[in-house]
Amino acid sequence: MKKLVIDIINKLNTPEISYADVRFTNTDDQTVYFEKGNLKHFGSDMDSMSLGIRVLVNGCWGFAGTTILTDASIEKTIKKAIANAKVGSRFRREPASFKKLKPVKASYTFAPKEDPFQMDDKFKIDYHEKIAKKLVGNEKIVYSYIYTVFYRQYKIFANTEGTFVDSFVYDTMPMMYVLASDGKETMCRTWPGHMNGRRGGFEVVRNVKMEENADKIIEEAIKLLDAPRIEEERADIIIGGGHLALQLHESVGHATEADRIFGKEISYAGKTFIKPAMLGTFEYGSKIVNIFSDSTNEGGMGFHLVDDEGTPGASVDIVKNGILLDQQTSQETAALLEVQPSSNMLASFADDIPLIRMTNFCLAPGKGSLGDLIKSTENGYYIDFTKTWSIDDNRNNFQFTTEIGWKIENGELKGIVKEPTYYGITPEFWAACNGICGPEEWEFHGTFHCGKGEPGQSMHLSHGVAPARFKNIVCNVKA
Amino acid sequence: MEFRNELVKICEQYPEFKFNFHYRNWETDFLRFYQSQINYNISKTSITLSTTMHKGKKSYSFSLKNPTNAKLLEKIEEVKMIIDKLPEDPDFIDLEDDLTKSKEKEKLNNVEKVSLDKKIDILKKLAKVVEPFNFKIYGTFICNYKILYIINSNGVNKREINSPIFLEVKAVSNKNEVTVLETYGGENFNTFDVERFTKDLSAKVEAATGEIVDVEPGEYEVVLAPRCVGDYLMYLESSMTAHSLDSKMSFFEGKLDKKVFPENITITDDPEHPDLINFDYNHDGHIYKKLPIIEKGVFKNFMVDNYYGRKLKMKKNGAEGAGLIMKTGNKTKEELIGSIKKGLYISSLHYMNFINRKETSVTGLTRDGTFLIEDGKLTKVVNNLRFTEKISDIICGITDIENRSYTIPSSSNYGEFQIYSAKIPHVKVKGFKISSSTRTV
After folding, report:
1. Residue A185 reports pLDDT greater than 80
2. pLDDT recorded at residue B413
3. Are B62 and A45 inside 8 Å of each other by CB?
4. Same structural domain for residues B241 and B275?
5. pLDDT of B108 above 80
6. Rounded to the nearest 10 degrees, how much is the dihedral formed by the CA atoms of A316, A320, A324, A326?
């Protein structure tokens, strides 16, 4: 396939085409899914190969992708990409342009500790079945499931600037869920929560310790049925890592994607409240808030040598000491903002067009353990495990509900509360951050399901976070 | 066609297994525009075979891109080595056995019919219309073409063709980013009336040039545009499936044939309605026909597929909610708005999510044009607002319904960008709960 990619890029190296890139991906995935203790789905999509060609002609992008890799289909795909750009340029007022980058030639392979695609299928089934059976033991648990998705992708990238990179990575996403009912209402608990994707192989499944936590989530789901709700109008809240990853994702990650500034995502994902003039001056959060995009950290699913337009992986400060400094950019939007491209252009598969996507989007750690943070909180709530998420078109007003919360009184965790729901306005919320746990609590959380673009793409990405505290947050919203 | 026959042969060749095949040939032409110019044009093609092999109550699923007979046979041999080792699913009884066929109409390939040049001509015209108001157009113009074959070992051998067109135009103010939305969806491009589309879009733009205000959280009398009602019904639909009943997450559990909503609410699922994007079969290959869902407020039917129908001993009906139609009322849109002294007109919703599915509690936001109604008239633009509310309460709060309904397209966005449509009127709702403002438009 390397030869095929090189042959295509050579064909595209013509004076008429000011830039072109070609990608090939070969993706495998496998899913084990038990529902109510029974295997409901076991299956795989192996050798899903696709090819994508993106060209810039007369300042307009054209793209064509296919999973049909015959000579005739590839020829048609090349022609279609060029025609899409040429015809499109009839309705392109401001030509896209950017500086040439230095070519990169490199190769990367991630080696999982336990390769799920080399393991015995029976072992994986038995492993999950044992836990699935534990989830159905209690009569108040009316529904349950457990699944793991295993994924690996080989990618070749080449562009007309001379970059040629191939990579091979493994990601894994395990999850279990229980629903408790007392006949009147239902309450759920998940483990390890919705930010459950990680770079790695079967070791990821072992690391999240689902079997060890099965009884705990059953007990908590049942207790939630009789638990009170938060009654205070406002309270200090400590947000656990799994949910804080999503808070960061929605209210900072998506808000700082530069394509939104220029309206390129208005039709589906939305806009952003950020304007170019805010860079360097806007107070996004309190002074302890430091947020960065880092595609150089191999521990996260957002690691890469180059992004899908050849920009080398980079670590970029987005918010430094509370001030908004930069954006996640493509080459085109970086040129418009007069900043360096941040290496955030990615596509899920080769037949998808690259978009500005989060990679490893992280909140820098502060100091101390979670225990220390709770101890230093006189009154408030410790909340975790996302249940509901929603944020507006401009990424300004968000509202989240978590599955569970624990009341904090005089620095100690007391009883649980059900469906804690809080809302906020993005910069006011991050300005209220007055405590972030230290490196010992900082870890990667992640998802396979960050949706963006049309046709929609689901991206694998990670968030490095440690639990953090926010003061005086509105937290008694009820339907 | 040739490969379809191969799949039938394979069902016969391996009688010890039951096969369920979905063989899809899909293409799309996808234009995205922003600031009244092209963002990019995408063309995609794919051929996929999704297969589930059953041996008794054991099963294994796999998918092949660009499949050939040799690749499929090789995979079957692999599965034969695995399948006996798998645990059984005691709830699996049999594959779909409904052999009823629809007319399986031929459909024009709109990817070919609606060329990129034609799309650009339309967009140029729309851009020109909003320009005097200091607005630009943003959005998508999509044509898909899909041929799906559903074949199984019980003799199901069916074909469905879809070729939807989806045009979504947002006009956005250069001055303050106030946004309005106009859409078209259908399979027959001759029904696209560019003059009407232009007129409707410019009327919305004109209404969006007013002063922007904020409103306090609280309960409001609102007029919901058809798109909003469609969105609420789509979320509620997740409670109408046999699967939701089985997973104890259905609001309608124990409510069959009971009055759940006011008498003015009648909802039907009609995948053959001439104003909608049509579907012949559900995902199992069961014939998909008109089905009453709510009749005069009474919940009449769950949407029952093969697996959960057999498991729960419910009659399969093939319904999927891909053609929801809400019965019209007797008021004009102007009368609905005109009867409100102080309230809101909500054009569109954004980022809605369940807080508790069984209770139908959701939170979400307004988008693409929220307006203040004062003394029966739209007077000002309102910042986008957050609602936190039970969908069942919203429907119970419907006091009046418009006497006309509109075709509202929507997309599943992911995978093959399937496009659906619904036919919905405006409604007036009392006591609609606004929980906060976004302070932005």
Report:
1. yes
2. 75
3. yes
4. yes
5. yes
6. -10
Task: Give the gap in angstroms from C-alpha B410 to the nearest C-alpha of chain A.
Answer: 11
- The percentage of chain A sitting over the pLDDT mark of 90, rounded to a whole number, equals 97
The verdict on B243 and B316 lying in the same domain is yes
E strand residue ranges, B110-156: 135-152
Let me know whether B117 and B162 are in one domain. yes
Q: Are residues B55 and B79 in the same domain?
A: yes
Domain that holds residue B19: 2-207
Q: Say if CB B205 and CB B174 are below 8 A apart.
A: no
| Res. B1 pLDDT band, cuts 50 70 90 | low
Final residue before a domain boundary, out of B164, B185, B207: B207
Cβ distance B63 to A80 less than 8 Å, yes or no, reads no
pLDDT at A112: 98
Q: How confident is the model at residue B411 (pLDDT cuts 50, 70, 90)?
A: confident
Predicted confidence (pLDDT) per residue in B142-187, tens digit: 999 999 999 999 999 999 999 999 999 999 999 999 999 999 999 9
Same domain assignment for residues B195 and B163: yes
Residues in B closer than 8 angstroms to A69, CB to CB, are 66
Looking at the fold, whether B161 and B233 belong to one and the same domain comes out as: no
Q: Does B174 touch chain A (CB under 8 A)?
A: no
Closest Cβ opposite residue A271 in set B177, B354, B433: B177
Q: Which domains does chain A have, with CATH numbers?
A: 2-225 (3.30.2290.10), 234-474 (no CATH)
Answer with the one of B207, B227, B254 that is the final residue of a domain.
Answer: B207
Q: Above 0.85 for ipTM, yes or no?
A: yes
The shortest C-alpha distance from B377 to chain A (Å) reads 26
B415, pLDDT greater than 80: no
Phi-psi region of B303 (alpha: psi -120 to 50; beta: other; left: phi over 0): beta
* pLDDT-derived band at B73, boundaries 50, 70, 90: very high
Mutate to test the interface with B, among A51, A127, A257, A393 (most CBs of B within 10 A): A393
Q: What is the mean pLDDT of residues A38-50?
A: 95
In tens, the pLDDT along B220-275 reads 999 999 999 999 999 999 999 999 999 999 999 999 999 999 999 999 999 999 99
Domains in chain B: how many in total?
Answer: 2
And the tokens for A71? 């000579």
Which residues touch A94 (CB under 8 Å, ≥6 apart)?
A59, B35, B37
- Helix orientation angle between A2-12 and A71-88, rounded to the nearest 10 degrees: 40
Residues B153 and B223 placed together within one structural domain of the fold = no
Nearest chain B residue to A84 by CA: give it. Answer: B41
Residue B390 makes CB contacts below 8 A (sequence gap 6+) with A479, B359, B360, B361, B362
The reply to whether residue B139 touches residue A266, judged by beta carbons under 8 angstroms, is yes
Burial (CB count <10 Å: 0-12, 13-18, 19+), residue A207: middle
Helices (H) and strands (E) in chain B, counts: 10, 21
Q: Is A267's pLDDT higher than 90? A: no
Residue B383 contacts A where some CB pair is shorter than 8 Å: no
On whether both B193 and B285 belong to a single domain, the answer is no
Tell me which chain B residues have a C-beta less than 8 angstroms from the C-beta of A60. Answer: 38, 40-41
Q: Is some CB atom of chain A closer than 8 A to the CB atom of B36? A: yes
Give dist(CA B186, CA B328) in Å, integer: 21
In degrees rounded to 5, what are phi and psi of residue A18?
-80, -25
